[in-house]
Design goal:
It is built from three helices and no strands. The chain has about 110 residues and is mainly alpha-helical. α2 packs across α3. The longest helix has about 35 residues. InterPro entries: Cell_div_FtsB, FtsL/DivIC. One of its GO terms (biological process) is cell division.
C-alpha cells in the first residue's frame, strides 16, 4: 500500500515540474508579464512626448507667433526698432558664516 502512494506522488511531482519550472511555466509567465508592464510604461511616456512634439510642430506650422517666440528666446532676435537687453541671472550667494567675533552666544 505504501509503494503505490509514493509512486503516485512522484508522478504528480513529475507532471507539475513543467507547469512551474518548464519553458512555458508560471515563473516564465510572471517574468514576461513584468517585462510587458515595463514596456507599456515606457511606451506611455514616449506617446506623451510624441504628442507634445506633434503639438509643437502643429503650432509652428499654423502661425508666426510660435516661430517668433522661439526666435526671441533661443536666438535673441528682435523686431525692427526694438532694443535687446540681456539681464544675467544672479548666482545664489553662499550663506555668510559668522567670524570669530560675531559667533552666536557671545
Amino acid at each position: 500500500m505504501r509503494w503505490p502512494v509514493i509512486i503516485l506522488a512522484l508522478l504528480v511531482l513529475a507532471l507539475q515540474y513543467p507547469l512551474w519550472l518548464g519553458k512555458g511555466g508560471w515563473l516564465r509567465v510572471w517574468e514576461v508579464d513584468g517585462q510587458l508592464q515595463a514596456q507599456r510604461a515606457t511606451n506611455h511616456q514616449l506617446e506623451q512626448r510624441n504628442a507634445a512634439l506633434a503639438a509643437e510642430v502643429q503650432d509652428l506650422k499654423s502661425g508666426n507667433e510660435a516661430v517668433e517666440e522661439r526666435a526671441r528666446y533661443e536666438l535673441g532676435l528682435t523686431r525692427p526698432g526694438e532694443i535687446y537687453v540681456h539681464v544675467p541671472r544672479r548666482a545664489d550667494k553662499p550663506a555668510e558664516e559668522p567670524t570669530g567675533s560675531e559667533a552666536p552666544g557671545q
